[in-house]
Every structure is written in structure tokens, then in C-alpha cells.
Specification:
Blueprint lengths: L1 H9 L5 H17 L3 H8 L6 H21 L3 H12 L6 H13 L3 H12 L4 H24 L5 H8 L3 H19 L1
Helix pairs in contact: 1-2, 2-3, 2-4, 3-4, 4-5, 5-6, 6-7, 6-8, 7-8, 8-9, 8-10
Length: 183
């Protein structure tokens, strides 16, 4: 918080460059302490160049998505991720977050699509999330998946069909990811 206060003093400078740097610095200081709304306000205290503005906005939206997800507000998390995706490419970790958010609101086909794309990059987190999704599909059972209005018949069948080979591949990938973390 000391940094944010120091940047507040610098915001009173007459130099536009100093005020720009102070606004940017204050935003970063607030982001580091988890004060996302304050970071958003600080970002507007002086005009930023397009690179900095995009960087701040995408970071703020990512943090809002994470915060909303942690509170169980999955729709709000998806809205923040959608907004962020309009200004910056979606990072793999945010794709996994999107997949879990879709899972939590019952949009299993969307979750599968996003997580498969993320897993295609070699993401261990995405592979684990896919395993969770497929396990959840099995636990929900065919009747509940088929009666869901959020997914269609084919998507429900896809969620249920997991061959032994696919399951083994997911388990091997998850095991590999665990050993990589220990190294």
C-alpha cells in the first residue's frame, strides 16, 4: 500500500509522462495486493498508451474472472473472460478456468471443447480438467445428461463415451504431469 500512496503523490505532478507512469504504477501496485477495483480506477487517472492500456485491462479482467470463479459466480467469470478475449489472446490457464466454469454451469460440451483445445497444447492442468469432466459425466449418469436442456443428445453421448484407451491415456498424462511437478 505504500507504493500506491507514493504513486498517488506522483499523480499530482504537472508532467503528463510522470502522471501516466504514476497511474500505471499505482494500478500495478493495487493488482499485486489483490485490489482489482482500485487498480481499474487507478488505470483511468491518466491516459495510457495502447500497449499499457491493453495490458492493464486484460490483467484486470483476468483477475476479475478468477475472483468471480472463486466466489462461485461462474457466469460472471465467463463474462470477464469473454471481455478479456476481445482484447487479448486467451492464455491456456484461462482456457482451463473457462472449462471449469462451463462445467460448473452444466455446459459440458463447451467445457469439453475448450479443455480439449487447451490439452492440445500439452497443458497438464487441461488434461486433469478433462479427466474431471469425463468422470463427472459418468457420475451424472446418462439420464441426467440426456435430460439436460443445456446440451443436446450427441453431446451427452460424447460425454458418456470414454474408451478404456482414452481413460488410460488421460491417466498416463496426469501421472506424467504429477512427476514433472516433483522435478
Amino acid at each position: 500500500m505504500e507504493a500506491a500512496a507514493a504513486f498517488e503523490v506522483a499523480l499530482r505532478a504537472t508532467s503528463d509522462a510522470t502522471r501516466r507512469d504514476a497511474s500505471y504504477g499505482q494500478s500495478l501496485a493495487y493488482l499485486r495486493t489483490g485490489l482489482i477495483d482500485e487498480a481499474a480506477v487507478a488505470a483511468t487517472k491518466a491516459p495510457q498508451d495502447s500497449r499499457r492500456a491493453s495490458e492493464l485491462q486484460s490483467t484486470i479482467l483476468a483477475e476479475r474472472a478468477l475472483g468471480a470463479f472463486e466466489k462461485g459466480h461462474y457466469g460472471a467469470a465467463l463474462m470477464a473472460l469473454d471481455q478479456r478475449a476481445q482484447i487479448a489472446p486467451e492464455r491456456i490457464d484461462l482456457m482451463v478456468l473457462r472449462g471449469y466454469a462451463y462445467m460448473n454451469i452444466g455446459r459440458y460440451d463447451d467445457a469439453r471443447r475448450v479443455l480439449e483445445a487447451a490439452a492440445g497444447t500439452g497443458s497438464c492442468e487441461a488434461l486433469r480438467a478433462l479427466a474431471v469432466l469425463r468422470d463427472q459425466g459418468r457420475r451424472l449418469g446418462k439420464r441426467q445428461l440426456l435430460s439436460s436442456t443445456k446440451i443436446g443428445f450427441m453431446e451427452a453421448l460424447r460425454a458418456l463415451v470414454l474408451t478404456d484407451l482414452q481413460l488410460r491415456e488421460l491417466q498416463e498424462a496426469a501421472s506424467f504431469c504429477r512427476t514433472q511437478r516433483r522435478v
